[in-house]
Amino acid sequence: MRRNKRGQRGIVLVAVCLCLLLMLAGLGLGVDLNRMLAVRSAMGSAAEATALAAVLELDGTPAGIERARTRAAATWQRHAVHASSTLLEFSSSASGPWLSDPQTADPHLTFARFSAYAKMPLTLLSGVTGEKTLPVDVAARAGQVALERVETGLLPLAVRPDGRLLDGLTVAVEPGEARLAILNGLAFPVKTGDRLAVRTGAGKVERETLREIVWSDTDPGSATYADYARRGTGNGRRLILLPVTGEESRVTGFAGFFLLPADAYAEDQAELRLEPAGGYLAGSRRRAAAEQGAWRAEVIQ
After folding, report:
1. Which of 4, 83, 142, 238 is the most exposed place for a label (fewest CB within 10 A)?
2. Taking the domains of the chain in order of start, what are their residue ranges?
3. Among 13-17, 67-71, 73-77, 102-106, the least confident range
4. Can you give the C-alpha Rg of the chain in angstroms?
5. pLDDT tens for residues 101-114?
């Protein structure tokens, strides 16, 4: 009986050691798993912001690709997330193929994918598995997505395809509110096919306010959009989104237009004109990569 008791005590000791080992492994797994999830979440958020920042610079030119790389690097650095390696790639489709170094300008390169890889040091779990680090990798995609309907930030003006403004407002506003309506844009829905009821009599307000928008830009002096893009000092105020109209003032689509220097909207000018700038990319200081239409940059899930 005494021998049996000694044997049982030995079994209990082994069982306790095994339980302690399992508890240590579980504790290490929980601690390191929570750390991994936190690191992955931080890296994922930073990767999405980086891909989105890159997309906002794509305008169909080689310079746009270089700006995308520069802004992506700055955005990732600003989030202060450590990574062993990163990669920025471009594509004309959300599903690829992805190019890390496009050789020529391509107006169809409207998507960006940012990938990051890191090695997370293990703490308690390393004593169980023998591994010192755990690999963590993330990837995020963003792209320029076409808008078929515009609801906010739209000036109450309409334009012909050649850049000639229609004479009047396209929405009913009080005379005293016309300036703010043009200056700030309005929240009224417009979609392709709508017929705009143009209201005349706001010419003087239009001219004064368009000049005000030009002077609110950090580059009010560039004579053309090409000069404006090349200088790169503007804040984007001179790039505006307007509905393009055809016969009977019916909306045929949307496009970006560039406000000419302030003297182009003086009272002695016979008509108001804008320079067609191609596609409009909301939230960007640049035009979109596409030649026409209204676009927004968004993360692709």
Report:
1. 4
2. 2-144, 149-300
3. 13-17
4. 29
5. 887 667 789 999 99
Q: Is the peptide bond preceding residue 97 cis, with omega within 30 degrees of 0?
A: yes
Distance CA 113, CA 31 (A): 31
Query: What number of CA atoms fall less than 13 Å from residue 75's CA on the CB side?
Result: 23
Say which residue, 176 or 292, is predicted with more confidence: 292
Report residue 142's pLDDT band, with 50, 70 and 90 as the boundaries: very high
Residue written as token pair 């802004």:
71
244-264 core/surface letters (b: 16 or more CB in 10 A; e: else): bbeeebebebbbbbbbbebeb
Q: Would you say how long the chain is, in residues?
A: 301
- Judge contact between 151 and 133, C-beta under 8 A: no
